[in-house]
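Deliverable D5.2: sample structural annotation.
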Amino acid sequence: MGVLEHVVAPDGVAAGRGYSQVVTGQGRLVVVSGQIAQDEHGALVGPGDPAAQARQVFENLRRCLAHAGAGFADVVKLTFFVLDVADLPAVRAARDAVIDTTHPPASTAIQVAALFAPGYLLEVEAWALVSD
């Protein structure tokens, strides 16, 4: 794990809800492509259930990060793409189950018209910094 500095609210900027406005650090960059709610065979997990889909997405992120020698403690940025912002509480609950909520990563949430295939409700990408 690298040494990261999390700034929830820099001078003159309002604090975000459950994320840091700025995260800085040094190390090896790990970028994980957007993950969707697919199991290891490519099948949709949790049709119509944003909480089940979010849990699968974060499990996929965990596996991808682990492959690169990283974990959620190393994540500096998460980007959420959701079909409906009303699903964000379920997404945040899945996120909060795996991150240190006292030092959350920077975050962006975007409502989109569609994802790559019908049935998927969210996609999440991650950026991490790992000590060399």
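Annotation notes: The chain has one domain: 4-130. The chain has a mean pLDDT of 96.
The annotation will be released with the project's public dataset once the embargo ends.
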